[in-house]
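Q: Could you fold this chain for me?
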Amino acid sequence: MGDWPDPLRRLYGRRKGHPLRATRQSALDAGLPRFQLALPPAGALLDPAALFPAHRPAALWLEIGFGGGEHLAALAAARPDIGFLGCEPFVNGMAGFLMQVAAAGLDNVRVLADDARLLLAALPEASLGRAFLLFPDPWPKSRHHKRRFVQQDSLDLLARALADGAEFRVASDIMDYVAWTLREIQAHSAFRWLADGPDDWHHRPDDWPPSRYEEKALAAGRQPVYLRFQRRPRHGT
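A: Sure. Below is the predicted structure, expressed as structure tokens.
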């Protein structure tokens, strides 16, 4: 992994939960060496084509903090033409996702068990066709709001990596986090909110697979909000 400056690595909370069962540990041991991407030295950029040497994907999509990986695995299975990148520092989540990758025989995924900002900084400009941030930790205490991913500097990194017209999808069942996200992203000049009415954020689009976090929210009586933002054209295009 490259020698990246500390300001880009902002991991909070646990990196590992309960001890992994043998099957999950086996999936982690076998899958991580195969699917984990290596970051280049600081200041250098990844070559997206080199990430998937068996075929050249039509586009690259990124999920930031994929949790248990249900959404990412479902998308990767449905869209073999797309190269999927996933960042998840929580070991248990990574192990669960790699079990799904092995079970489905997926080869169009690459993962990073670290902060997504490191990957965003290493991607070439305008290289991502879509990005996802689904049910992130809301860090509800005011003193912890600085730990939230949606901040202006993180959005700068994301805006640089997204192609013009690319989508950034965000979901949450915590209304304070939804309000924070709308405020921060609408304050950023690179994004516009793709919504004309309540139906545009109250219902998950058909091409947006569910996750266990969404199912937990619905079971608890909380209504998730589904936000879609578009990368505005760069100046001069």
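A (continued): The first strand starts at residue 59 and ends at 64.
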